[in-house]
Amino acid sequence: MAGKLIVITGLDGSGTSSLAEALCKRDPHGVLLKTPDGPFGEARELFDGEVRTLSPSAHYLYYLASVVYASDRISELRKTNNVYCVRYLIDTVVSHRVAGMDIEPIYEGMGYSLQKPNATLFVNIDEYVRQNRIALRGKSGLDKVLDDLDIRECFLAEFRRYADHFHVVDNSTDDIQDAIQKAVVFLPWLS
């Protein structure tokens, strides 16, 4: 079996993890992955603090390395499974473009080759609904950053730059089944 790579992206609090988990459960060959994970997840706090402030380039390279690491894992997993990945290259590029870096999503780079997604789903959500969901789970550092309307609009504008790379799935209702049905349209093996 040559498995598929499905990337689920969107603003924090939009339901990317919930949708990915639900789609993975629906797929008998599904495996869930979130980036950064493994050793990169363990070091994330350090890189999001001091390193990000001192060296935005090093911060970007850390996240790019976490995607390369995930891609190598995905390559193995795809031999027998479909991989549902929360956050991937598009997220790394978008967040660092918002931070002022002039970068693009490059799947073949100096010393690396990334697995290309078969489908990328951008989880869209009404801002009022997103804020209510975040209030229930508690605000992370990025949630607080995205409270700033200008910054949030920058993130959305950067995602729109890559609109031809993804399908939009609205997740503004309280019924995850609604979002699943919208996503499955783009994932015919789950129909």
Commentary on this structure:
- By secondary structure, this protein is of the alpha/beta class.
- It has one domain: P-loop containing nucleotide triphosphate hydrolases (Rossmann fold).
- Helix content is 52%, strand content 15%.
- The protein has a five-stranded parallel sheet, sandwiched between helices. It has a two-stranded antiparallel ribbon with strand order 4-5.
- The model has no long low-confidence stretch (mean pLDDT 93).
- It comes from Vreelandella neptunia.
- This is Thymidylate kinase-like domain-containing protein.
- InterPro entries: P-loop_NTPase, Thymidylate_kin-like_dom.
* Named CATH architecture: 3-Layer(aba) Sandwich
**Counted beta strands:** 7
Gap from first CA to last CA: 18 Å
SSE succession: EHEHHEHEEEHHHEH
How many individual domains? 1
CATH topology: Rossmann fold
> Uncertain regions: pLDDT < 50 for 5+ in a row?
none
Percent of residues in beta strands? 15-25%
Q: What kind of sheet is the major sheet?
A: 5 strands, parallel
Radius of gyration: 16 Å
Helix content: 40-55%
Supply the number of helical segments: 8
**Mean pLDDT figure:** 93
CATH superfamily annotation: P-loop containing nucleotide triphosphate hydrolases
Q: Which CATH top level class fits? A: Alpha Beta
Structural class: alpha/beta
What is the secondary structure topology, with strand pairs?
Elements: E1 5-9, H1 16-26, E2 30-34, H2 38-54, H3 56-77, E3 82-86, H4 89-98, E4 108-109, E5 112-113, E6 119-124, H5 127-137, H6 141-146, H7 149-161, E7 167-170, H8 176-184
Parallel strand pairs: 1-3, 1-6, 2-3, 6-7
Antiparallel strand pairs: 4-5
Helix pairs in contact: 1-8, 2-3, 3-4, 4-7
